[in-house]
Backbone:
């Protein structure tokens, strides 16, 4: 069984990707690294919601420090702040996966219809090559409705923006 580390942006967005990856035979663990979410209270609400889902599903995950200041420093160099935000979080995910000996990595950002899917995919493919990891790609957007319905059944907190202060 191959292991995959999935970057998790929120509790709602993990539901369908986790289901797909498990069905494909992966051993899945998560990484919570979202210094983009502002204010801190919003970050904590999303983390709590995801933690609840993880507990209910016996899902192992790692949590990295909330460092909003470093996120601000990082994204200011990019004309497209979304690109900088993706890069910071996905690079950290690939690096973490490599250091913890995962076979591959992916992200729940590929589930959202509101994210820049093609940019995320290309970025992850390049990071996979750089770190010598498999980038596990699925277009999770096909399960958008299923994930939303399940999150509503679980009464998970549902945010209405990506978290970015901008």
Residues:
């Amino acid at each position: 069984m191959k292991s995959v580390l999935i970057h998790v942006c929120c509790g709602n967005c993990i539901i369908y990707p986790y289901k797909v990856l498990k069905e494909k035979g992966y051993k899945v663990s998560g990484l919570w690294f979202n210094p983009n979410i502002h204010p801190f209270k919003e970050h904590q609400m999303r983390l709590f919601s995801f933690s609840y889902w993880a507990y209910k599903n016996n899902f192992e995950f790692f949590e990295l420090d909330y460092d909003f200041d470093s996120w601000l420093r990082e994204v200011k160099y990019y004309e497209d702040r979304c690109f900088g935000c993706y890069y910071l979080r996905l690079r950290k995910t690939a690096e973490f996966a490599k250091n913890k000996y995962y076979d591959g990595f992916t992200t729940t950002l590929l589930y959202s219809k509101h994210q820049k899917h093609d940019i995320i995919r290309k970025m992850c493919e390049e990071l996979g090559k750089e770190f010598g990891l498999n980038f596990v790609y699925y277009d999770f957007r096909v399960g958008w409705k299923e994930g939303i319905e399940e999150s509503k059944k679980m009464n998970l907190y549902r945010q209405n923006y990506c978290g970015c202060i901008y």
User: Anything to note?
Assistant: The CA atoms of residues 32 and 46 lie 10 Å apart. Strands lie at 3-8, 27-32, 61-63, 104-107, 134-135. The chain has a mean pLDDT of 94. Helices lie at 11-23, 40-56, 68-75, 81-99, 117-131, 144-153.
